Structures are given as C-alpha cells and as structure tokens.
Amino acid sequence: MRETVIFILLTGVITMTRADDCQAVNFGHGSVVCVCNATFCDSVGRIVLPGPGQFLSYVSSKTGSRLVRSQGQFQKNGTGAALRITLNPSQKYQRIKGFGGAMTDAAAMNIQSLSSGAQDQLLRQYFSPDGIEYRFVRVPMASCDFSTRLYTYADTPGDYDLKNFTLAEEDVHMKIPLLQRAQALSAKPLNLFASAWSAPAWLKTNGALTGKGTLKGKPGGREHKTWAQYYIRFLEEYQKYNLSFWGLTSGNEPTAGEMTNYSFQALGFTPETQRDWIALDLGPGLHSSSFSQTRLMILDDNRILLPHWAKVVLSDIQAARYVHGIGFHWYLNKIAPADITLTATHHLYPEYFLFGTEACAGWDPLDRGVRLGSWDRAEDYAHDIIQDLNNYVTGWTDWNLALNQDGGPNWVKNFVDSTIIVDSSKDIFYKQPTFYSMAHFSKFLWEESQRVGVSFSQHTSLEVSAYIRSDASAVLIILNRSDEEVQFEVWDQTLGFLPGSAPPHSILTLLWSRR
C-alpha cells in the first residue's frame, strides 16, 4: 500500500501519495483539481509501449483518478463480458493533426504572473514529452476579448501601405517569449495558427474595433487588399523571432460583426464576402508571398453554419484553390448535430480538413466562469472531442491556456473557464479536470494517427473512438458518462481479448502494440 500524507492547503484537503501523484484539492464542484508549483506537479510522463500481448490503461474519473496507469494482458478466450468492442482496422477514416490551446494576451499574462520556476512547470505540462504534448497553439492577431485593452498593429488612419505596422508589447514581451519557450520544450515543431478578431477601425464601416462592422469597400478594393497584407505583415514580424505559422484562419467568428452589435472585437463577413475576399485578396496575397505553404482555414465560427458556409466558399474555384481546411467552434453544438454539420461537410468536400479552432467551458450565461474541479465540464470536453473525431474532425483546440481565478483578465468581462487556473498570489496553478480530458487525446493520438472502425455487440452508453498510430499501435478512447461501471472486452483479431472496465463518470485511454 502507498503511504498517504494528508495536510491542509487553502480551503481543501490534499491527499499526497507518490511524488508523481496529483496533489488534489476539492472546491466542491464535483471533483478535484491538481495543485502545481515551481517544484512539484503531477505528470503523465513518457509512455513506453509494453511488450507483445500486453496493453496499457490510463483512467481519469470523477472520484479523483488522474491518468492512473495500469497494465494488463490480452487473453486468448473471451472474458464473458456482455459488451464486446471489436476493433475494425480495415475501416479507415481521417488522419489526426493534433490538439492544443490558445496563447491569448490573458493566457500569457497569467503564465507570466508566476515565478520563473512555476512558469516552466506550467509550460512543461502542456508541451514537453513528460506533459500532454500539445502540438497546436492558436495565436490571436492583436487584441481580442481576452486582452486588457483594444489595439491592432496598424492603428494609424490611412496607412494603406502598412508602413507603421508594429507588433504590440503583448506580442514582443509576453506571447512571443512564451511561444519560444514552449517550442524549446516540445519534442517536435509546434503548429501555430493565427486568427484575427478585427481590422483596424479606419478600415471598417463602423469606425470601431467592436460592434457591427465590415470592411469598407468591396473585395478587390483598397481596404480589402490592405487587410490581406496585414496578415502577411503579421507572419513576417513573427518570423523575425523564429516563429513560423502552420496556418491561419480567415477571421474569428465572422458572423459576430455581420449579424450582431458585438460587445467586443469583431469583423463581419458573410460567406459570400469571405469567399470573394479570399479569391481576390487574401489568397493571391499569400500565394505570392513567402508564406504560400501556410494553411488557410475558412469559417472559424460555430458549426451550425455548416455545410452552408463551406458550400458558398468552396463551390467557387477561385476561392477554393487557396483554402486547405474548415475551422469551427463548439458553441451552440447542442442545436447543431455533428452528422448534419461535420460529416455532411466532409462528404461534400473530403479534400478539405475539418479542425476545431476554439472551445471553452464556462461561456454559457447559465453556468458562467470558473468552476474549480468541475467533472461535468471534463465530460463535456471528452464528449465533444469524441463526437467531433467520430465525424471526420482532424484536431481540436482549446481556448485560453491559462486564466486567473476570475476567468480573466478580459476587458469586456466575458469571463470563462480554462484547463489551467493560476493563483499568482500563492505562485501555484490548478490543473482542472478538463486538462485531463485534453490529455486523454493529445498525449496518445500522434499526428497521422488514423481513425478506424469499431463495432459493438450490444447497445452501450459508452462513447468510443479508435485509432491506429504510425507505429502500428492501437489507441482506444472511452468515455463513460453514466452512474454505473461498465465491464467490456475489446476484440483485436491479431491479439485476442482485452479485458476492460470503465468506472462511472470516467475517461479511459487504452493502447497496445499490434505487432
């Protein structure tokens, strides 16, 4: 048995076991958070596949398990479990690109509010081989709601040639140094992608960064070409700091500035105006620049807009030739079924990848802000990721990498939750249950992992997604949102039967070598 030491921290009780275990604190929101500081943080560590015929299991649960590892043996005969999950590797679907989060101004401020040692610890949790190995980072171009002020990089009226284009102090002193440190920790190059919230006010019809407003003029005109060049100038400036971008989106939530009087930064596009701006301005601009290989994602808005938005943009041959993928957000998903949005879009345009570009808990006005230890939110994450992946999505990006205990800073007080919450007054940070939801995917689903088929011997409440990785190993991710433990067996025709059990309210990742 493990020796257990119990002591008090803040308002909760910590149960500390081995050096690599979660230091758990319960704030009364259904489960626990794991507390980290400059000298200690639980870590999943580096994963080594066991020998032939053996499997690894990692489980996180409402009761407090966090990526708890165990090892088992395949059996030649069935286990007698009523539920058999059969792996069907011959059924091949999309390949995975990866998972990540956003380096907003707020995230950078919160990370930098910690001591140097605690900062390193936090970045290691996300990006190092001992952490959960995020591969993607979304970077806002200039300010968004998770900034402390309104700004763009070209706020000089009439500067159509962008002669005064200048990165902000938030880029130079916060986001860029942290991105460089994250890259240094990562075993592979990070895939950065950028999204802009608003064009400079002088380029817009409403003369403001916020509210309902679009670009002045028409696609092909002076304002639209300047806005396209703004993207290229951003890439050029970041390149000076040895940071290159895997991709861009055509603009954050274009419907926000088109259909509503938004309270924070927005730039309106319809699918028709986005199509024409890409065809006439952004696409040709990127193509003729040194960033022609940068991947362009359209939409970057809620999936309820699919497949219509994709049809409008991608049915135009001039626009479609510059587009690589379709980015979408998770808000309003409850009224936008995945099959009639994501799968329908994939079948119409299979050559364009689908990619989740933003999600966060705590955005709903009925359940607002930070909930330290909320397991319901962890299940919401895992459910949405599995649903997306099972409907042809190639990756999933969380929103802010770190927020404070208020869910900010946010200049418009649009406070939400985050997978890591920082308490700078104590030089600590909390890893939320949602952090571990992300880990069950980002740690195990390598780039180019291919989703494969699964079938079930009977109806089940379990939510399952299966993959074959580049080394021929298999990964099975299982979510149990029910109150009951579910016994099952996995049938792999090359190895036999894997005996398994999904505890109530748990996320389970199984992996094994098929060679």
Automatic annotation (TrEMBL):
One of the entry's Gene Ontology molecular-function terms is: galactosylceramidase activity
Nucleus as a keyword of this entry, yes or no, is no
Q: Which UniProt keywords apply?
A: Glycosidase, Hydrolase, Lipid metabolism, Signal, Sphingolipid metabolism
| InterPro entries listed in its UniProt record | GH (IPR017853), GH30_C (IPR033452), Glyco_hydro_30 (IPR001139), Glyco_hydro_30_TIM-barrel (IPR033453)
- Its top-level enzyme class, in one word, is hydrolase
Signal peptide location in the record? 1-19
**What is the recorded membrane topology of this protein?**
Peripheral membrane protein
Please give the pathway this protein is involved in.
Lipid metabolism; Sphingolipid metabolism; Steroid metabolism; cholesterol metabolism
Q: Which residues form the Glycosyl hydrolase family 30 TIM-barrel domain?
A: 96-445
GO aspect biological process, one term = regulation of membrane potential
Subcellular localization, per the record? Lysosome membrane
Per the UniProt entry, the Enzyme Commission number(s) are 3.2.1.45
Report the protein name in the record. Glucosylceramidase
Q: Which organism is it from?
A: Labeo rohita (Indian major carp)
